[in-house]
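Changelog excerpt

This revision adds worked examples to the README so contributors can see how folded entries look when concatenated. The first example is reproduced verbatim below.
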Amino acid sequence: MRKRVDKERLLGVVMISPSILAVAIFIYYFILWSARVSVSKWTGLMPDYTYVKLQNFIGLFHDPRFSIDIRNTLLFTLLFVSGSLIVGLILAILLDQDLKGESFFRSLFIFPMAISYIVTGVAWRWLMNPAAGGRISGLNLLFDKLGLDFLINSWYTTRVWGIAFIAIPAIWQMSGYVMALYLGGLRSIPQEIREAARVDGATEVEIYRHIILPMIRPITLSALIILGHMSLKVFDLIYSIAGKQVALDVPAIYMWQVTFDGLFYGRGAAIGILLLISVAVLIIPYMRYSLKTEESL
């Protein structure tokens, strides 16, 4: 019996060893290698591992362009995360009312998630076309036909708020995913709890505010982490809509340009390490919270 257990354990180790090896090489090894490059003097095609301490990181925080990247990332994250959570919650509440054709609307709302950010960016670049006059198209053309000229604007070409308009297609794409998370949470709440609250005289607004929303708080936290880490490393959506515009720059685009266009590999690796740290700061506390929650159950 013991030999059989040992053989099964050995077989399990053999089966998962390729995955473990691949993760060790293509994730953790390259993280360590990027960390080494980030403190090197590597500029140009030929590797140069001369140790320069934290000069690449210090240079970034004195770079005006990187300051724009941080501002854009914070604004995009705030609008994208809050917008997706609010829209997703509203859609979930509407679908939780036993509407006719619920399966159709559920599929309709979650469908944008199946589309890549590149496709979303190309489509919304046309929808948010800032052209006017004879070249007007997209949403501006719709507003013009409806007589809503006050809504016509320059969209993502707006100098200060351009990044805010790019959050709109991101919200459109991910709000359906958040809706699915919230809908699962709402359906897991027993109807007896709601009925008891109604018997006590609570209104529907009070039920959602004091009972349902606190009970689905773990789902909100999960969605917040998922959306937050996506917003920190956003690249393809912005690039497919606006291309290389410093006003709409984010760290991932800057990292691409400084590394592969400018051949400043040390600085590019430093940006990558900062992105990794920002995502880790967001995810690690959530993982610890999840582990503690599981242990307490």
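The second example, added in the same revision:
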Amino acid sequence: MSTPAAEHARDHASADGIAARARGLTKAYGSGETTVLALDSVDVDIARGRFTAVMGPSGSGKSTLMHCLAGLDSVSAGQVWLGDTEITGLKDRELTRLRRDRIGFMFQSFNLIPTLNAAENITLPMDIAGKKPDEKWLDQVIDTLGLRDRLKHRPSQLSGGQQQRVACARALASRPELIFADEPTGNLDSRAGLEVLAFLREAVDSLGQTVVMVTHDPGAAAHSDLVVFLGDGKIVDEMEHPTAEAVLERMRLFAGGNTQTPGFDVVRDQFDEGAAPAEED
């Protein structure tokens, strides 16, 4: 199944309004009888200036999709573009430069350098590239994320939520075309997780960024504009303007009502009665 945007743009080279796209994206691991097809001829478009969540049970291919779209993993077949640039034919050095200059990353582990303070961690990718940050933009990012009074603190002096905000600022600092977030709230308690999701939402709404987030959490997906559902390496559905309850119900349908399917146990108790997740003290 393709997303509607992919269907409409299938034969068009223009990437106007599209931050990233894939056509016939296939990723296989192994060979012969041991081959595992992680992605199976996926067509997808990621719209600019929107927050897209990618969901699916464990093993559905959601992280593989993100890694291939971001140029972090090679593809077995198909094509991937960032804007108008096809990345599937780029050499390693060109891919490294593209990721550094045009993509921001957030991961479940914060990946902060413990010997650097927050300000230094935020500008580290640009420092490595020998580029000076746009100070006006950087100030806007820092203030949007509420980090002004934490810039001199090292990671060990910050809470988990504050560390993830620093990671978010680092992803935003170079004003990338696209931000990929892989389970960015996975190591946070519910309150800190909600803060980070709110900041990602703010990055889209106030800063004009484009965010793609891989998550297993319906509550996290509810912060997005669009949820793309994967199953067995294929896009099986999508949902505009999602709510946590609607996302969980859709996921249950894909699993044939089996709430023991991997990926559901984390959120089952929170949403069984349609309740929002409880905040931790």
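Reviewer comment on example two: The radius of gyration is 19 Å. The chain has one domain: 4-269.
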